[in-house]
């Protein structure tokens, strides 16, 4: 990539981040119904046309930061050593993101407020589910490649990702719960430890 191309990419990324941040801040301050695309564009100092090149609507802009972080988690997952089992790899990818990424949720002042809003504001749910499902689909592809399996015909990669993503989601729910004090990394560690400790069902059968 040339230096000019690199500058253009950075400008695009900066513009997208500015619009996403403006959307989150405005919606948290006013509520989704009281924020327009024009409000977001004005706050980010871009035109309405520019906004529409990046986002289908204000809901997509609000959840865009989550998309970026899910992508970082998947990049960390893809970089994990091949010898790690999928749950361990996903867990450690989350910790790489949490420990080293400046935009990881615990480091952002209003990220917990945004996550709470996603649970309250039903109009944001479809946009969030698209972001989450896209990320999990990418995770399944990564895990399938790690295991040398066909993700379309073998259920094991999808099952591993469902378990890992479920542990992550459960930890986040406890992190944003009213009165919660435990840090997110601790909750994630506890959730994955609980998965590992889950006893296998007995193979014996009993008759009455």
UniProtKB/TrEMBL annotation:
SUPFAM superfamilies with a match to the protein in the record: Homeodomain-like (SSF46689)
Keywords linked to the UniProt accession: DNA-binding, Transcription, Transcription regulation
The entry's DNA-binding region: 36-55
InterPro entries, A to Z: DNA-bd_HTH_TetR-type_CS, Homeodomain-like_sf, HTH-type_TetR-like_transc_reg, HTH_TetR, MftR_C
HTH tetR-type domain sequence ranges: 13-73
Name of the molecule in the record: TetR/AcrR family transcriptional regulator
């Amino acid at each position: 990539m040339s230096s000019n191309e690199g500058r253009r990419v950075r400008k695009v990324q900066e513009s997208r981040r500015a619009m996403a941040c403006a959307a989150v801040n405005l919606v948290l301050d006013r509520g989704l119904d009281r924020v327009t695309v024009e409000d977001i564009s004005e706050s980010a100092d871009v035109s309405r046309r520019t906004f529409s090149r990046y986002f289908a609507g204000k809901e997509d802009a609000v959840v865009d930061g989550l998309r970026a972080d899910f992508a970082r988690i998947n990049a960390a997952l893809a970089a994990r050593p091949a010898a790690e089992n999928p749950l361990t790899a996903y867990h450690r990818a989350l910790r790489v993101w949490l420990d080293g990424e400046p935009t990881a949720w615990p480091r952002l002042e209003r990220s917990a407020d945004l996550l709470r809003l996603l649970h309250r504001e039903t109009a944001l749910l479809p946009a969030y589910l698209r972001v989450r499902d896209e990320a999990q689909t990418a995770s399944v592809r990564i895990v399938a490649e790690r295991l040398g399996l066909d993700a379309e015909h073998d259920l094991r990669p999808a099952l591993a990702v469902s378990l890992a993503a479920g542990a992550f989601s459960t930890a986040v729910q406890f992190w944003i719960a009213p009165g919660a004090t435990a840090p997110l990394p601790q909750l994630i560690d506890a959730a994955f430890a609980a998965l590992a400790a889950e006893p296998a069902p007995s193979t014996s059968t009993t008759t009455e």
